[in-house]
Design goal:
Length: about 300
């Protein structure tokens, strides 16, 4: 059957846990032996894999009816060139939607949950059977779109990195990060385990865990009382970011007064690395896709000029 539009639909997929194991151990039998030898349940890997393959087949059969379809594995996202009119369909977990969104520039995303019994899918409002109704509406721009504010790190080397959830600036391993932090007309040298800069979407993830730890420590010291406790959450489309310095260490050469705050729409923060090696910046928890952030490198962090566009 001929597609009803010339617009390209890009389907983003990822390997299942079983596929990753087979790639590591060469065969399914060897992967099964490894997992069961450790006392784990291999049937869960099989069930997840088979359900994902079935969902992929179901989604592809629908998408081919509406437009030219191109499959892209998550591993190739960083080098894939999206067309300005592409409609992007993501089949996977929430993290795959976030990882895809940071490589887009205005293209809209349809998030599809391959297994609602397994994945909560905050960013995956649809299942495969919804697509017959959703895709023609999305192609005709008749679906509501939710804007997602993104963060951006720009280095003095000319390299940039976008984030949908959060940026991490700090050490690659369990050593102290050393840097100079500038916010407005204030600046100080710090030693910490790194800085988290969170978007509204990411505020229910890593940032929330930081606030939860802070609240628990305050309670342990008898602080805080009965008033409502902050959890750090704020709207996905809020035109601000939140930063938090993890485990700041005050010493003769490092201070700890600039440890938490907002970055408003017209503001940025500057960070100059003083780490001779192992300094990194990565986004959305993808540690393998990082920028080197070693001595002399300066990063400017602020709200990105573009935002994610999630169809709901």
């Amino acid at each position: 059957m001929e597609p009803i539009t010339e617009r390209k639909i890009v389907l983003i997929l990822r390997e299942t846990r079983l596929a990753e194991l087979i790639r590591r151990f060469n065969t399914r039998q060897q992967a099964q032996f490894y997992v069961e030898h450790l006392g784990a349940d291999f049937s869960d890997y099989l069930a997840e894999h088979e359900r994902y393959l079935q969902a992929t087949e179901d989604v592809e059969s629908v998408l081919r009816h509406f437009g030219r379809l191109q499959r892209v594995d998550r591993a190739f996202l960083a080098n894939f060139i999206f067309g300005p009119d592409d409609l992007v369909v993501v089949l996977g977990q929430d993290g795959l939607v976030a990882n895809t969104m940071k490589y887009l520039d205005g293209q809209r995303i349809v998030g599809v949950n391959p297994d609602p019994r397994r994945w909560d899918g905050v960013l995956l409002p649809f299942v495969a059977t919804d697509l017959l109704r959703i895709i023609p509406e999305a192609l005709a721009d008749r679906r509501q779109v939710k804007s997602v504010t993104m963060a951006k790190a720009t280095l003095n080397t000319g390299i940039t990195l976008y984030a949908v959830n959060d940026l991490f600036i700090g050490p690659q391993s369990h050593v102290s990060a050393r840097y100079e932090l500038s916010i407005g007309d204030r600046q100080e040298r710090q030693s910490s385990s790194g800085i988290i800069v969170s978007t509204g979407l990411g505020s229910t993830g890593w940032l929330k865990s930081i606030y939860a730890g802070w609240v628990a420590m305050a309670a342990a010291f008898g602080l805080g009382g009965d008033e409502p406790k902050p959890d750090g959450a704020f709207p996905w489309d809020a035109q601000r970011l939140h930063y938090y310095v993890r485990e700041p260490f005050p010493s003769r050469t490092s201070a700890a007064s600039l440890v938490i705050g907002r970055i408003e729409q017209s503001e940025t923060i500057g960070i100059v690395s003083e780490m001779p090696e192992h300094g990194v910046i990565f986004s959305d928890g993808i540690e393998a896709d990082f920028l080197e952030f070693n001595s002399g490198t300066r990063a400017i962090i602020g709200i990105a000029e573009r935002s994610g566009q999630l169809i709901v």
